[in-house]
Amino acid sequence: MDNIGAQSFRIAIAGMAVGVSTSPAYAYLDPGTGSILLQVLLGGAAGVAIVGKLYWHKFLGLIGAGGDAAKEEQLSGERSGEADDGSRR
Fold first, then answer.
1. 3-state class of 25 per DSSP?
2. Range of the domain at 44
3. Can you tell me the distance from the alpha carbon of 59 to that of 66, in angstroms, rounded to the nearest whole number?
4. How many domains does the chain divide into?
5. Which residues of the chain have a pLDDT value below 70?
6. What SS3 state is found at 35?
7. How far is CA 18 from the centre of its chain?
């Protein structure tokens, strides 16, 4: 246990030495970079929202709380099945 503590202390000291010895980068980020980052964040949020909506409807259908839309889809599927049976005769 003492060996792990000594190793952690050495890593912390080395990290502080690197942090103190670095110089500022003076990097420039133009407005286009911020625009792209914002677009990536908004696109990711939209994707997560759509995936969440799909799985939420599947979850509601699984527990039987789908509402009117799920019942209509089920009824329309049954009706189309009846029409197929009648056309085969």
1. coil
2. 2-88
3. 8
4. 1
5. 1-2, 66-89
6. helix
7. 35
